[in-house]
Design goal:
Helices cover 28% and strands 26% of the residues. By secondary structure, the protein is of the alpha/beta class.
Length: 410
């Protein structure tokens, strides 16, 4: 099994670059899609990222009020907070030289009645019309169009890309390899278990969902009543497109980045490992520790800079940006030794940093060691003798920087 790869990142203090935002509209299957197109300040043809959102009636910002229900159990320190992950992700990408299109899903703009007849293409593929739209803009570098899918959105981007020649790269953030119905059934039972709910009822509901979708995958789909406002045979079209998601990524044969989130309870880290085992066209499988499904830490409502910097670093290997200085740099002067190690590991650097904190994560993003006030100038050793042999990631937290490096325990 391939290892989860990480990245040496220096997350420095960043300058905020000016941006230009435009309210935009495009048509998809006879319906108007509303969105925002944002570019760096100035003129030029910018490489462009289109955000394909996750399930549900998301607006262009991904606005989510975490309140009530299981929130107090799953995210107690975020209870009452409003998250805007797609807007914050877009702001970070634009600040680094990329244009970004994000849009309101049709379920957000229209009522269920207004969307009749519901089809797979209408409900799940507005991103195809978004691609057509950005290709009409003079400020878009059409040689570098990137699709970024979050959650369910990541299951759709390879289906779209595999039949096209105008997509440069794909990014999957918190994407499931397991089919939609199995993930939904898992969530029902797991959330009930985690939050001391009625697991028996949750399991019964999960079984009903699995039974429904089992029939929906067959020629008997027309006998099913609609579920979530979608007819049985439309669900069959959906599954035909998304069940072979790993195969679709292979068939798209594009540079692809897979990112799993260490504290994701919606799409667990095992999904990233499944992709690693099945997708053969990339080695870019990265796990970002400490983040929940919505791209934020579990105690901060803002999208993690570690996540955005990881995406930016990778994107700049695929596309040239115009007029923006790189804000993610690699510093080789930080010395971690020995690596591989057997008992302890030391860190030294030629900066005016007297001490800092060190956090060690396993390959699934779980914290396995934490140490405060390490003397970096004198190379004080960090005792890791109690760890099992394997690959880990060491986060070095300084005043103005955070470094993540891959380490190996022999």
């Amino acid at each position: 099994m391939k290892l989860i790869f990480s990245l040496i990142l220096i997350l420095g203090l960043k300058a905020i670059n000016a941006q230009q935002s435009y309210p935009i509209h495009f048509t998809h299957d006879g319906k108007t899609v509303n969105g925002t197109f944002t570019t760096p300040d100035g003129t030029g043809r910018f490489p462009t990222v289109i955000i394909n959102p996750g399930s549900g009636p998301n607006d262009r910002d991904g606005t989510l009020l975490l309140s009530g229900g299981n929130t107090e159990c799953l995210y107690p320190e975020l209870n009452g907070e409003t998250l805007k992950p797609y807007k914050e992700l877009a702001d970070a990408l634009v600040d680094s030289g990329f244009a970004v299109l994000r849009y309101d899903k049709l379920e957000f703009t229209y009522t269920a009645t207004q969307l009749i007849p519901v089809t797979f293409h209408k409900l799940w593929l507005p991103v195809e019309s978004a691609i057509a739209y950005v290709k009409t803009r003079s400020d878009v570098d059409t040689s570098c169009l990137v699709l970024l899918g979050h959650s369910e959105g990541s299951s759709l981007i390879p289906f779209i890309a595999k039949g096209r020649s105008d997509i440069k790269a794909l990014i999957s953030v918190a994407g499931p390899r397991t089919p939609f119905d199995s993930i939904l059934a898992y969530q029902l039972v797991e959330f009930a278990r985690m939050c001391d709910g009625d697991t028996l009822t949750a399991q019964m509901q999960a079984d009903q969902i699995l039974d429904y979708y089992s029939i929906a995958r067959t020629s008997n789909c027309s006998a099913l009543p609609p579920l979530f406002g979608v007819a049985g045979c439309v669900w069959r079209d959906y599954f035909e497109a998304t069940d072979p998601v790993a195969t679709n990524y292979n068939l798209s044969n594009l540079p692809t980045l897979f990112i799993g989130l260490g504290l994701d309870v919606n799409v667990p880290q095992s999904e990233l490992i499944r992709f690693q085992n099945e997708v053969t066209i990339t080695d870019d499988f990265w796990s970002i520790p400490g983040l929940i499904h919505y791209m934020t830490p579990n105690d901060d409502p803002h999208v993690s800079e570690t996540l955005t910097d990881t995406i930016i670093y990778w994107l700049k290997q695929q596309c040239e940006t115009v007029g923006i200085e790189p804000d993610v740099v690699e510093i080789n002067e930080i010395n971690i030794f020995p690596n591989p190690f057997t008992e302890s590991i030391s860190i030294s650097m030629p900066y005016n940093e007297l001490n800092g904190n060190v956090t060690v994560y396993n390959a699934l993003g779980q914290i396995v060691s934490k140490a405060d006030k390490i003397d970096f100038q004198n190379g004080s050793p960090v005792d890791l003798s109690y760890l099992m042999s394997g690959v880990y990631f060491m986060g070095i937290n300084l005043k103005n920087y955070k470094v993540i490096r891959r380490i190996v325990k022999q």
